[in-house]
Amino acid sequence: LSAAAGVGGGLVQAGGSLRLSCAASGFTFSRYCMGWFRQAPGKNYEFVAGISRFGLSTLYGDSVKGRFTISRDHTTYTMHLQMISLKPEDTAAYYCAAKLGQDIPTSYSDVDYWGKGTQVTVSS
């Protein structure tokens, strides 16, 4: 089984935008709720955003509400995170995650599959 792989990170100035993508493989995409987590150096994993199996429900961490938008595409088995108005405190490694079933993953222990991290660095 292969975990989802995230791409799209990079270096951006404060106020800028980035779009992260996560391509799922090795599991039945529609059976899984998906999410994004991030980890800054020396800090715990932080829930960023999550989306239900068919995209009808979304959840966001308080620090990103109104700036980040999560979506998923069942024709390409991908999940995206559109990030705008980026701040230096958004700097972290971002990980896509998958959880089997009806509940959106919001904590580290919820996740069944992790994707490779992609680094986002926001300069001031």
Report on the structure:
- By secondary structure, the chain is an all-beta fold.
- Helices cover 0% and strands 48% of the residues.
- Strands 2, 4, 5, 6, 9, 10 and 11 form a 7-stranded mixed beta sheet that branches. A 4-stranded antiparallel beta sheet has the order 1-3-8-7, with no helix packed on it.
- The model has no long low-confidence stretch (mean pLDDT 93).
* Number of strand segments: 11
Radius of gyration: 13 Å
Sum up the overall morphology in one term.
globular
Oligomer: single chain
Number of helices: 0
What is the H/E order?
EEEEEEEEEEE
Low-confidence stretches: none
- The separation of the N and C termini measures 40 Å
Mean pLDDT: 93
- Biggest sheet features: 7 strands, mixed
**Helix/strand class:** mainly beta
Percent helix, as a range, is under 10%
